[in-house]
Amino acid sequence: MVLRILSYFLTAITLKLRRCFCWCPSSRESLDDAERRMLSFMKKPYCGFFVDIGRVSDIPRRNSRIWTVVVDPDDGSSDSARLPLVLVHGYLCGSALWVLNLESLAKKRTVYSIDLLGFGKSSRPTLSSDARTVELQLVQALEAWRQRVGLERFVILGHSLGAFVAAAYALRHPQRLAHVILEDPWGFTECLMPETPFQLVPWIVATFSRGIKFFSGTDICTLLRAGGILGTRRLWSQPALREAR
């Protein structure tokens, strides 16, 4: 017991020192802690686990895992006719971002909230730089996850980028879905040169994003990460988050 308590305090001190002296204060421990704090606002119990989906790319040459949060229906409210609901988050989000919706959505059905590959606690394999190929990889990852979890049919709800992935999955595996719910869905068209000044703005933004990716080898989120502790302080200065803390 004494060793366990000592280990707990040493872990807490190490985590605090990392946050204080690291320009980009992020770590696996910080991510776990942030998710626990967010999901602690729920009164219902939940469980979280990794689902091994095998390899989705050649880099790295090992299996990928998808982090999954499950909330069961209320006691006595389970209905076998009600298909499970799968939540797919948007860009720069994760499974815990559904925290304000999970309890109400799980009143009468089981809810699965997943982290897409490259987000949250899921694996971060190097996916293709080709848009159509990476779309297929994300769909294949979602289908592999479904097979491992053992869902025959379900309802899928996607937000933002997650809605794009949900729609792409529905096109390739319609027999697995009872309903598709798209919240603020993303869509992509062929790249065309702008014909009017108003069409020039998104074209400039897209060109700038591609330039950042070329020089940094990553994506537009590089600018956010470069903000380090300044970005974190700005985030927690928001009134809603100050009250939550």
SSE layout:
Elements (H helix, E strand, L loop, with lengths): L1 H20 L6 H12 L7 E8 L9 E8 L13 E4 L10 H7 L5 E4 L16 H19 L4 E6 L1 H12 L4 E7 L16 H17 L4 H6 L1 H9 L2 H6 L1
Parallel strand pairs: 3-4, 3-5, 5-6
Antiparallel strand pairs: 1-2, 2-4
Helix pairs in contact: 4-5
Commentary on this structure:
With 245 residues, the protein is of the alpha/beta class. It folds into 2 domains: 41-188, Rossmann fold (3-Layer(aba) Sandwich), CATH 3.40.50; 194-245, no CATH class. The protein is 44% helix and 15% strand. The chain has helices at 2-21, 28-39, 99-105, 131-149, 161-172, 200-216, 221-226, 228-236, 239-244; strands at 47-54, 64-71, 85-88, 111-114, 154-159, 177-183. Helix 3 links the parallel strand 3 (85-88) and strand 4 (111-114). Helix 4 (131-149) crosses helix 5 (161-172). The protein is globular and about 70 Å long.
The count of strands amounts to 6
Across the major sheet, the strand order is 1-2-4-3-5-6
CATH superfamily of the largest domain: Alpha/Beta hydrolase fold, catalytic domain
CATH architecture type of the largest domain: 3-Layer(aba) Sandwich
Order of helices and strands: HHEEEHEHEHEHHHH
The global form is globular
Mean pLDDT: 81
CATH class of the largest domain: Alpha Beta
Q: Estimate the strand proportion.
A: 15-25%
Our count of domains comes out at: 2
Radius of gyration: 20 Å
C-alpha termini separation: 30 Å
Low-confidence stretches: none
Q: Specify the biggest β-sheet.
A: 6 strands, mixed
| Helicity range | 40-55%
